[in-house]
Specification:
alpha/beta; Glutamine Phosphoribosylpyrophosphate, subunit 1, domain 1; Rossmann fold; 19 helices; globular; binds fructose -6-phosphate
Length: 620
């Protein structure tokens, strides 16, 4: 949720840290702060509520030259404990202003730690859980076994913490080192030439190096100018996994667009092509990491897809394909509900955990619950080496590239494609599809990047429509079969970007309640199935539209090119290329993303950073 960056090297730390924070701001944007060690025993800290721009303006007012130093760290916050005001912004310090800490996650036993500190006479200056760690680390460094040893002091405090956390710590007396620790919250190390970085994600340092190391669970790293050293929380040397980032700086820049989201919508053909690339070899579907035997896949008798938000909608789409191709029952469940419901799981259950970030806490906890119950877990993830794939039995990466707009677009389409590959891999292992059928399905999937490219040509028409309906008080979305999750996704995009009341319904449910919402001029978006592929459903939806039109609503119809039967019922018709039934969500979602973005833009909102949201939700 929060963005963290730390640096020790030969450049001015403030410049590097602010550059990193600019790329991490999508992780949280309630407040921002920096700390720089000046090398002469002083710690300079500045922090400000609001966007990073507020902090930068304050630094200008302070005089950036007063923050000279080659070691430092920064933070961009999504508030959990305490409102987003200056005093709750990170870094937090101890009373003597020698230790500074930035933190992502939640320290669950913070109330207990706070009471303990207050009983010792410590006055806490903020409402945060984080500040307790600064006081505890300062105390551990001051006396006892860990005195004068910053890494040992951090490890000792980490052993006392409960919950999920990434901590980055500096001490004015140790100006050439930064210490970082992680438990269930992301942290990567960047390895440069005479400089090292720690960050919530590689975007923070991609400008300087593509060589990265993934810090493991319950590990601590000490970075200095010349190297890094990893231990576990007990101080024993530990292994962390090196990797090379497979995208470059241009992927993390707007590339001439006003917003990342608009660029990411246009990148969808590439995101799909990259996700499919390399997964069909010698007539067989392959995953990226498979720590499961084919026999395990043959033994599966039930599939759960667990995920949150848009990723959950991708799972709803997958259900239609996996049940159809594999003849296996598939349940799709919100990760936040899954483990509290006592689902029936055993060795023969496959849990597919879908997550763009790979660090969503609800999904991670669902994975852990599934594994405790001996179920097999397959992760579909967009982030190399994130916690969810690390804890899974098999992994399929969606190679969508970095998604920086907070609302998911290209990652969502890539998730649908990856989920389909999972379905085909299962069908192949279980023999419910012949090899030539698997090859045909894959070939159809391989055509979707071109179909999405063609759909992008509707952009201008959809934008004009968005501007026309931008003042509506609500919008409804209807679909059937795979069009139903598309309707849910369209409504979610509109809610999060345009702060508008939007609901998605299965069109068959209309008469069971939602039709009461229909009123004069209310925009209703209808996702039509193919008249050829799903003729029965098509005619049922035509009836639904005429019922809506009869009650004065404004019908906006997304339909396959050449679908003349629906034309008379469409006040606005957006034509998408014909695809097979199961692949239609990949094209039908695109106009809904563009519509939501344009409505939000017309209403004057920042579509990359919608209010109250953050890109990855690392708290439950
Ligand atoms: C919606 C959106 C969120 C995410 C959800 C899961 O546009 O972005 O609903 O889909 O928070 O995130 P991941 O996929 O990172 O687990």
């Amino acid at each position: 949720m929060c963005g963290i960056v730390g640096y020790v090297g030969h450049r001015q730390a403030l410049d590097v840290v602010l550059g990193g924070l600019r790329r991490l701001e999508y992780r949280g944007y309630d407040s921002a702060g920096v700390a720089v060690l000046d090398g002469a025993g002083a710690l300079r800290v500045q922090r400000k509520a609001g966007r990073l721009a507020n902090l930068e303006a304050q630094l200008d007012a302070d005089g950036r030259q007063t923050f000279a130093g080659t070691a430092g760290m920064g933070h961009t916050r999504w508030a959990t404990h305490g409102p987003p005001v200056d005093r709750n912004s990170h870094p937090h310090r101890d009373a003597s202003n020698t230790v500074a800490v930035v933190h992502n996650g939640i320290i669950e036993n913070f109330a207990e730690l706070r009471t303990e500190l207050e009983a010792e006479g410590v006055e806490l200056a903020s409402d945060t859980d984080t500040e307790t760690t600064a006081h505890l680390i300062a105390a551990a460094y001051a006396t006892g076994e860990t005195a004068g040893d910053l890494p040992a002091s951090v490890r000792a405090v980490c052993r006392r913490l409960e919950g999920a956390f990434t901590l980055v710590v500096t001490h004015a007396g140790v100006p050439d080192q930064i210490v970082a620790a992680r438990r269930s919250s992301p942290l990567v190390i960047g390895v440069g030439d005479g400089e090292h970085f720690v960050a919530s994600d590689v975007a923070a340092f991609i400008e300087h190096t593509r060589e990265a190391v993934e810090l493991g669970q319950d590990q601590v790293v000490v970075i200095s100018r010349d190297g890094y050293e990893v231990t576990d929380f007990a101080g024993e040397p530990a292994q962390a996994k090196p990797f090379t980032v497979d995208w470059d700086l241009s992927a993390a820049e707007k590339g001439g667009h006003d917003y990342f989201m608009l660029k990411e919508i246009e990148e969808q053909p590439d995101a799909l092509a990259n996700t499919l690339r390399g997964h069909f070899h010698n007539g067989r579907i392959t995953l990226d990491e498979q720590r499961l035997a084919d026999q395990d896949l043959r033994d599966i008798d039930k599939v759960f897809v667990v995920a949150c938000g848009s990723a959950y909608h991708s799972g709803l789409v997958a259900k239609y394909a996996i049940e159809h191709w594999c003849r296996l029952p598939v349940e799709v469940e919100l990760a936040s509900e899954f483990r509290y419901r006592d689902p029936v799981l055993d060795r023969d259950t496959l849990v597919v955990a879908v997550s763009q970030s790979g660090e969503t806490m609800d999904t991670l906890e669902a994975v852990r619950h599934a594994r405790e119950q001996k179920a097999r877990v397959l992760a579909v993830c967009n982030t190399n080496g994130a916690q969810i794939p690390r804890e899974s039995d098999a992994v399929l990466y969606t190679h969508a590239g970095p998604e920086i707009g907070v609302a998911s677009t290209k990652a969502f389409l890539a998730q649908i494609a990856a989920n389909y590959l999972v379905g085909l891999a299962l069908a192949q292992a279980r023999g419910t599809k012949y090899p030539d059928e698997v090859a045909r399905e894959f070939a159809e999937l391989a055509n979707t990047p071109a179909a999405v490219q063609k759909t992008l040509a509707t952009s201008e028409q959809v934008r004009a429509l968005g501007r026309e309906i931008a003042d509506s008080k609500a919008v409804l979305f209807l679909g059937r079969h795979v069009g139903f999750p598309v309707a849910l996704e369209g409504a979610l995009k509109l809610k999060e970007l345009a702060y508008m009341h939007a609901e998605g319904f299965a069109a068959g449910e209309l008469k069971h309640g939602p039709i009461a919402l229909i009123e004069q001029d209310l925009p209703v978006v209808i996702v039509m199935p193919s008249p050829k592929g799903r003729a029965v459903l098509h005619s049922k939806l035509v009836s639904n539209i005429s019922e809506i039109q009869a009650r004065g609503a404004r019908t906006i119809v997304i339909a396959e090119e050449g679908d003349d039967a629906v034309r008379p019922y469409a006040d606005s018709l957006i034509e998408i290329p014909a695809t097979s039934t199961l692949l239609q969500p990949l094209v039908a979602t695109v106009p809904l993303q563009i519509l939501a973005a344009e409505i939000a833009r017309s209403r004057g909102y920042d579509i990359d950073k919608p209010r109250n949201l953050a890109k990855s939700v690392t708290v439950e």
